[in-house]
Amino acid sequence: MISKEQTIELKGVSVILLLIHHYFYVYRGYGNIIMDYIVDYSKICVTLFVVLSGYGLYKTYKNQNFGYFKFTFNRIKKIIIPFQIVFILFVLLGTVFNLRTLEQAYGLNNVFLKMLIEFLGLRNFFIPLLGSFAYNETWWFIPMLLWFYILFVPLAKMMEKHGLMAILTIWIICKLVIPRTIPQVILNMIYPDYLFAFAIAIFLSMYEDNIKDFIKEKRLSNIIILFLASIPILFFTQSATLSSSFWILSLLIVFIYIAIDEKYNLRFVKEVLFQFGKYSYQIYLTHTFIYYYFFTEFSYYFNSTILVLLQGIIVSFALGFLVNKITKAIINLINKIKTIKLESRKANCS
After folding, report:
1. I want to staple 42 with a disulfide (CB 3.0 to 4.6 A). Which of 17, 37, 60, 73 is the partner?
2. What is the pTM of this model?
3. What are the phi and psi torsion angles at 216 (to 5°)?
């Protein structure tokens, strides 16, 4: 239903929404009320990326014959190694040029322990013990994604076996049981709203042929009717907040984008979104250093919402592109060193 190309383009949509949300979340759109609403709704970028991750992950899982540990390890390695390279690069930059010190990020106690925990992508799980700490606050998403990847195979197997009953059970747990029984400090570690969005995306990926049949005749109208009908579900959750409805809105964005893409030939828009989606992970990992930690004055130099946003989008894309190339070069170098060592061992054995 969603092609690989469309998934990358939708990641482009997600990362642009991320930049809008973060650049103006603190400064609230320079006092522009309309921009303030856009900023609030732009937070949907997280749920949208989670939905795309869950959907794509099941496609990969279905086409591979790996066991739980190998599949999970491969997926975690794919996100954790680029993150760790960025972590080392930017911690070095920040400390050497005094742009963000270790004391600012980690305080005076347990500095290297906190660094190691964040480096391993486990920060969220240690905040109850060590208090709040981070070299980059927006990296909270990494531990959440690792948590979801660990849960992915059990969730997928549960839905393959029990279908709609499984997704209903997950909804009850995430939307009713957990918010009413788990302390807030633990909720901040398990993210039940995002977990349900992740699960629903797996479910849709699993049963996409049935969904195709439903939207085959009148694609757009049927989608809108379906989601309008599902909105009352929100009122049965603990709190029908804006963020709790984002799983519905994210799926609506996905389906409407597909409908528009198949009806209209928007080559330039697709290419722009594809490029942003291609480097979305590196843009996410690095963009906060531009507007918040390292170059705040530069980022908000213009007294115009549009110019600040354009500058932020262009600079964030350029940095994401550069970091992507550096990351690939470092990974290729590490792989070459490993290959040389392996060949050397074989030669010594013979």
Report:
1. 17
2. 0.90
3. -65, -45
